[in-house]
Each structure stands twice: as structure tokens, then as C-alpha cells.
Amino acid sequence: MCRILIFGGTTEGRLLAEYCMQQEIAVCVSVVSGYGADLLPESRLIHVISGRMEEKEMEEFMSRESIRTVFDATHPYAVEATVNIKEACKRSGASYVRVERESAAENGGGGREASASQTVYVDSASEAARYLKDREGGILVTTGSRELAAFTAIPGYEDRLFARVLPSAAVICACEELGIKGKHVIAMQGPFSEELNRAMMEQLGVRYLVTKEAGTAGGFLEKLSAASALSVTTVVIGRPSEDRDGVSLEEAKKLLMESKLQTCSMAGSENTSAKRKISLMGTGMGGRGQMTLAVAEELKRCDVLFGAKRMTEAAETLGAPADGILRIPIYGNREILEWLENHPEYRNAGVLYSGDTGFYSGASGMAAMLLQEPYCDIYDYCIYPGISSVSYLCAKMGRSWEQVKLISLHGRDCDVSLEVSQNPAVFTLLGGVHTVKELCEQLLNHGLSNVRMTVGERLSYSDERIVAGTPEQLAAMECSSLAVVMMERDEGREGTR
């Protein structure tokens, strides 16, 4: 379970997320926009929460997910966000760590003394606009889209302003609503090199550059140097004066590692008589609404989920919490147990199986392993059955299944023609080389042309298809690998349902 939450959307937030991935630290990362989420590395250990959260929502999330430590790596100018994060931490009991961006002055860039003759410092975007209002020449604004409205007070801003903003559709739309359009919108992701800044200002022919003192990671020094080389006046909106008492990026990484070691230590020092739990859960055919309430409730108690990729990716739809739960796309029994051995901090594991756990399911193999040493001394397990494909299809057909012979061609072989000749009704799972076409050919080759076949494809999904007919009629049918077949020797109505 994630015990660490990073508020990002910045270079520092991304670097911390990458560090967590490298060190195998499970972490939640909160970003405001989908664009910010796209910049994060894809990893089973990184759980992204996209969208703005108010203070109450932050508090509820921290409490619900038992967050122990919060790293505030938001932008230096996101003062309101920092205030909300601090208050949420205070109310939820989580530890607060501010990750400070290294300033230009701290990095030897001279800060407020740099190129003083061509640099003007102001306290706000509105003050910058007032300074530029009575001056002539093009203006490159690199403060972000939220500050642009202040610059519309400049006469003729539609022609004078060039806004460099993030390449997001919402941001570009916001620029257009302010009257900043076409070539006056430069949608690019930074930070930018001195050479690119210089080339851009030369191309635009601007006389003023507006920027925030955003620190070294924000490319502040590169902007100053490029502007100085072109004799462009830089208008700097100074950093907020609030003392955040933060830590550096490297110090934050050390704290993350300490948190990981502490979590593992706590997991190892817990009462050894309290075994870890593994829940083996049948999730039905996969469509929404096919899971039992017992499985849905158990999903909420798990801190890590295993299963085929199709299952883990659909876990949220099936009932798992959207955030705070680790999903590992592996389903081999030994692979799962080895992973759990290497991650003792996870106490409640869930393994997802399609259909029912008692019908040709991998749950039986896992249960058998958990009864053996040393696993029986480490884990308790519980099996949660699901709705099977045979019960689902029979319900759709309007018949019972107590006299149906159950077999499987999913990863195994069986003499289907023999089973059909000896039983009035046979149900089978398909998979691999065993297709509807192959099954029809086998029945026809053994003189079983009068068998009524009912094929169920992608049962419970929105594109579910159930088709009935004889082997001859269905021999050319193209079908998904997620298919089952009922074969009956009695005469029956044919058609599509």
C-alpha cells in the first residue's frame, strides 16, 4: 500500500517519482493536469491522481489511504496549494516535507544582481503589466497561462504579447479566450536551453522577456543569459517571500529511502503470529456488475493485486479503489509468492481469476501451494467464488446445467466428439488453437452434424454475442478467444440472440 504522497507537476516531482521507481518505492503522485500525468514514468509502483484537489479532498485522501509522509514538490509560486497541503497534513496526521527548488542565487547565478542594467524586478504579474504598459516593443511572457489575464491591461496586447505556455489543449483554449491567438501562442514544454531562448526571442523580435524567478530547474538562468545577449530587458516576478523551511531534492530522496526502510522494518517487526492474507477471487466474466458483493468488498481491503494484465487493468471497474492500491500484472503462482517474499510490507494480497474459482481456475493450484510449507506458516488464504461462464450462458439460454458435462479446451486437450456422443449436453471453454471452426470440423468428421451448438463470445461485455446453429452453419464463424460453447444432441431452435 502507498504510504507516501507526492504533490508534483514540476521537474522536482517528476524526479522524485523516477527515484521511487528506481528504488522500488510505492508512491502516489498528485498532479493537477493530464499533461502533468503524461510526463511521469509508467510504473506499477507509481499511482497517479490527476485533477485538482481542495484542502478537504486532500485530507480525506490522506486519511483514507493512511498516508504517512507527504512531499510538497509543487511550483514555488503555488502558495495556495502549499497552504492547503500543510493544513491537510496537519488534520490527517501525515508528516509534511517541502521540496524546495534551488534558486538561481543559491546556484551562483547572481540572483537579483544578474545583469542589473537590463533586469527589472516586480512583485506581481499586475505590476509587470503596469511597467510594460507605457513601453513599446514585443513581449515574450513565460510565466504560465494563469498569469496571462493580467497582461491584457497592456494596450494592443493582442499584437505585442507572445505567450509561451504548456502544450495542453485546455491551456491553448484559455489563451485564445483572452485574445492571444495563432503565432502569438507558443506551446512548448521546458525547461529551454539558452540557445533556444535566444533563437526564439530573435525570431519574434521581442524587446521584453517576462519570467518568474523559478530556480535552476525552471531554466531561469538560461532565460537571463539569452536576454542579456540580445539586450532584451527581463522583467522578473520575484519568488514569494514566504519561508517554506524546505529540503533539497537530494535530501528528499534520502527521506524517501528512510521511509522505505522504516516501512519494511515495521512490517518485519509485526506480530509473527499474525499471518499475511492472500485472497483468491473469482471476478466473473469481466463485465461490470458480474462480481459478487463479497469480492467487491474484499478488493477494498487489499493493498496489492495480482492477475493477468486484462484483470489488473480492469480492477477499478471491477470494484478496486481508483488510487492507493498496487497492481502487478503477473499470475504465475511462484512469481506471485516470490514477489510477496521480497515485499513484506504488503499484508493483504489479492489474486484475480476470471469466472469462478472452482471451474478450471488457477485458484486451485495456488490454494494447493499455500497449504505446503513454508507458505502455510506465512499466509492465510480465502477463496471467493465468482459467477462462472457456464452458469451465465445457461441463464441466457434459459436452461439449467446440473446435467451438463463440463470440459475445457483452454490450454488443454479433450476428445470432444466422444464426450458429445456420451452426454446429452457438453459445455467447454475455448482457447489457443481450439477455435469454433476447429470444434465444428471435429464434430462433422465424427458424424455429429445434428448437434445444436450455442457459442457465447465476450460474455457480460457490451459487445457480447451469443449465436446458435449446427456445426455446418457455424464452421466459418470468426470468434474471439474469450468464447465458450454449449453442445446439445437434442433438436433446438437456431439463430442469433
From TrEMBL:
The keyword Transferase applies. Keywords: Cobalamin biosynthesis, Methyltransferase, Oxidoreductase, S-adenosyl-L-methionine, Transferase. PROSITE patterns: COBK_CBIJ. Residues 277-474 form the Tetrapyrrole methylase domain. Pathway: Cofactor biosynthesis; adenosylcobalamin biosynthesis. The keyword Oxidoreductase applies. It comes from the Bacteria. It holds the Pfam family TP_methylase. InterPro entries: 4pyrrol_Mease, 4pyrrol_Methylase_sf, 4pyrrole_Mease_sub1, 4pyrrole_Mease_sub2, CbiE, Precorrin-6x_reduct. GO terms for biological process: cobalamin biosynthetic process; methylation. One of its GO terms (molecular function) is protein methyltransferase activity. This is Tetrapyrrole methylase domain-containing protein. It comes from Hungatella hathewayi.
